[in-house]
Amino acid sequence: MTIADKDKTGAPAAPLHVAIVMDGNGRWAKRRGLPRHLGHPKGVEAIRRVVEAAPDYGVRWLTLYAFSTENWRRPAGEVAEVMRLLKLYVNSDLDKLVREGVKVRILGRREGLPPDIAEIVARAEAKTAHNDRFFLQVAFNYGGRADLVDAARALAAEVKAGRLSPEEIDDQALERRLSTGGLPAPDLVIRTSGEQRLSNFLLWESAYSEFVFLDVLWPDFTPTHLGEAIAEFHKRERRYGGAVADDVLAAG
Ligand code: IPE
Ligand code: IPE
Ligand code: MG
User: Is 23 tagged catalytic?
Assistant: First the structure.
């Protein structure tokens, strides 16, 4: 059986690409009377659990929203803690990811990252570049708008250089220049913490994704929650703007 044939319940057609807005670390800490930043290490534990379990649920691509272009507005101490944790995660887990066939890709702007973070990001990608069993994307210094702006700039530069004509700009041309270029669109977008918004995540890519909002804070997220979100996904009917399958049959 290949990874994507069946999900944990034995049902076929798992959402192959699951993207998660990992939200609620601060509230998790606050509810325990702890400073906000102490929620983030607990969030990393939840990341480990979900990366480990996702293939068992038939997921082949997992994209995690870890730090947005807007999150630089957080207090400096909290930003430093998130940077520290990314480094710690890569340093402690990279060998395991390499062994397990996980290909790591960081989505988002490289410029603006502190040099040590840029280095660790490059190392994680280089060391896992040849893996193809499971695809882990970490959106870090990522914003959907910034990504679209960068793609538009890249297209404009190519037009200016005479390598591309404006007529050649279509969905595929733009898509290829996003930091998600080459990835399938997310089938399922999950957001934890009860908030029901996208917060600048995968604006283009989620055009026809199914959304599941869970009332669990990210540090409390377990593989069971992933299973619940996938079960909800299976109840949905995806139409992509077309007709409902039964109506097409009825219309002959
Ligand atoms: C998500 O948790 C993690 C990051 C954005 C880095 P938050 O830190 O946003 O937690 P809440 O939403 O304040 O509870
Ligand atoms: C989105 O969460 C970003 C990440 C999970 C990394 P935020 O907590 O930053 O979003 P808002 O501010 O609630 O919209
Ligand atoms: Mg939040």
Answer: yes
